[in-house]
Amino acid sequence: MPKITFDQVAKSYGSVEVLPPFDLALDDGEFTVLVGPSGCGKSTTLRMLAGLETLSGGEIFFDEKPISKLEPKDRDLAMVFQDYALYPHMTIAKNMSFALRLARAPKSEIEEKVRRVAEMLNIAPLLDRKPAELSGGQRQRVAMGRALVRDAGTFLFDEPLSNLDAKLRGKMRAELAEMRDTIDKNMVYVTHDQVEAMTLGDRIVVMSDGLIQQQGTPEELFKSPVNKFVAGFIGSPSMNFIDGELVDDDGKTWVHGDGFKLPLDLDISARMNDVQTRAVTVGLRPSSLTTDISRGAPIELKVVVSEYLGAQSVLVTRCGGADVLVETQSTSPVRAGSVQTFGVLTNEIMIFDKASGLRL
Amino acid sequence: MQSANVNRLTPYLFLAPAALIMAVALLYPIGYMIYASFLDWNPSQRIGEADFVGLRNYVNLLSDAAFLESFWVTIKFAAIVVSVEMFIGVGLALLLDRNIRGMSLLRTLFILPMMIAPIVVGLMWRYMYHPTVGIFNRTLKSLGFETVPWLSDGSWAFASVVIADVWQWTPFIFILSLAALQSLPQSAMEASRIDGATGWQQIIHIKLPLMMPVLIVTLLLRLIDAFKVLEVILVLTNGGPGLSTEILSLRISRTASEFRELGEAAAMSNFLLILLMLLTFGMFFYNKAVEVRAARLRAAAEED
Question: Transmembrane segments in this chain: where (chain B) (predicted)?
Fold first, then answer.
């Protein structure tokens, strides 16, 4: 379980630079999630770590050892692929034991390991079948099992749940979370699904356009995103952004825009005094708005749609020209089409520079 | 009601011309040949004048040393050329399954021999094998080696026709293998690299087993072709020296034209036909079995 360090690692295909040089350090025994939209370079990063892609620059270190010239098999890692990548002509048992058989492990040891992992993943009855005879969820487990049998120091997951339906995905996610706590290994997990990232990661690395936007614990990312991209990417439903302007009035700093004027808390307005720009984007989490107007600054919103989700509802509302999502308890129903006053929890307001998207 | 009937007949109407041509051009000659194989018939007779001799032609075949010899030559030829071609073709495909500059040009060059008419291939190789002016012997001589009796010694002649056939038909196996290789699931290859497979282990444990369905069909296609081979050998050696390269189709043509025994030739043709049918059925049933198995697996997977 080495400490993995990316040192100025870069990747380009011909003249197209997909990953400008970046640094990244993954601590020993950590579950790291690389998350970002398609094409952000997260899979490429993982594949470089796996040795399936060459580096165009920089070096990856396992502890102090450079590994970029090593073959994948010499990096002591196991990988779960998005499409599972099972060997179609081998039975499940053979699939799972392939690496051990190549390593010429004793037969009894192979059998023992395969059986143990198969029992852990509830796939023991499937060992004699071939991958084509399994459902998607079962194949997923086998892919996981094949990686676990290896007992490698580092586990890599390349969007392992994205081919499953929503229900199964939720189930597997929970099982993975359980596995994470029982297996003390480095795990690097790539996904485009922020829910997976939030629920699984000890640490999340948010990537976009080949750049690492921010890394931190799920809570850090949620509570203090460094820019608009991270703020919008993390959290579900995602954060509302409304353009506005900072104004000083009545001894306080306000953010003023089309259809709203919100006071800023002291600590936020103190920070605003240091910045030049007045054109900003206000970030409001759907959960920062409440129907209880006594709890926050008032804002008038026109409710367009009310999406009933059960215990909670998501209201699609309009503030001037911008759509604003509001998360409410379904116990206080809101009629679509009405104009309502909501309370904004001012301590949760985030202000971003409109031009650069950086959080102020 | 009436239009419904017409609609039902439509597919058969469209099939009719093809069926008719099949019947005239395929079934009729085959029927004719089967009938002829029961006759003692020489070309000066009309078919009606020939004596019906039952299975005598077939019985004769089994005791005809020349026929058995050429049957053996055919088997030997087919087995050797197909094995060598499979080995080289698949090997080349494994070697060239990568992104190199100019690969498409290289591929085109590789399959060129396949596109040359067999007669031309025969003539080409006959000049190259020529004992004095052929390129092989001239080269050998200029390098100070003994010349080789390419087409005039029994064993050498057999080797020579094998070489020519391998030259022409290896590309067929090469392109099919390459296509099979390039359609293999990439992620399984990557998984095997991570699992620790070396290049060789990847070939043996992953690539070849996954290519197997294509390889088996390719093998059977080539085997069927190899049993029917005629032109190249006809031009190169005409079956000689002795009977060393006299494959079945050559024997059949000589029996009909030189020995003027049409009935006997028809019996031989039937013999070859049955052999090829067995191979074809083998291929057919193999395909069928694969399909059935795939369908069963799919059904099983969907149940879960």
Answer: 12-35, 71-96, 108-128, 156-181, 202-224, 265-286
pLDDT tops 80 at residue B304? no
CATH assignment of B56-303, given 3.40.50.10320, 1.10.3720.10, 3.40.1280.10, 2.60.40.790?
A: 1.10.3720.10
Closest CA to B119 of B88, B164, B159, B82: B164
**Token output for B125:** 């190789």
Rounded Cα–Cα distance for residues B241 and B152 (Å): 6
Taken in order of first residue, the domains within chain A and their CATH numbers are: 4-225 (3.40.50.300), 240-353 (2.40.50.140)
* H or E segment and range at residue B300: helix B262-303
What pLDDT, in 10s, does the model give residues A59-85?
898 888 888 888 888 888 889 998 889
CB pairs under 8 A between A and B: 77
**What does the pLDDT read at residue B301?**
62
Strand partners for A254? A247, A263
Q: Token pair of A212, please?
A: 């690492």
Tokens for A339, please give them: 């104009």
Query: Which residues of chain A are within 8 Å of residue B192 when distances are taken between CB atoms?
Result: 87, 98
User: How many CB atoms are closer than 10 A to CB B9?
Assistant: 11
pLDDT over 90 at B90, yes or no: yes
Closest CA to B295 of A128, A125, A132: A132
Q: Which of B187, B196, B206 has its CB closest to that of A103?
A: B196
Domain boundary assignment for chain B: 56-303
Q: What's A285's DSSP letter?
A: -
Q: What letter represents residue B227's amino acid?
A: F
In the structure encoding, which two tokens stand for residue A2, read together?
């080495």
Instruction: Say if the Cβ atoms of B192 and A103 lie within 8 Å.
Output: no
Contact status, residue A147 vs residue A99, Cβ threshold 8 Å: no
ipTM of the complex: 0.80
Per-residue pLDDT, B78? 92
